Predict the 3D structure of the following.
Amino acid sequence: MIKEFRKIEQVTEIQGIIGEHDLLVKLDVSSGSEECEIANKKILDVDKVRSIESLGIYGKDFVMFC
């Protein structure tokens, strides 16, 4: 699964696993932008991703996969 996230060009960093299943990644896009929407669609195409929670921290999006 992590290999699939690395293929998404907007994903700049995989922060790590939170709890048992959630994964925190860093996207190099601004929140609400068209680029963000494209990244979210690509991320949701990954089989094991059920939802995305976007956290706007320090001008970057941190996205949690549940």
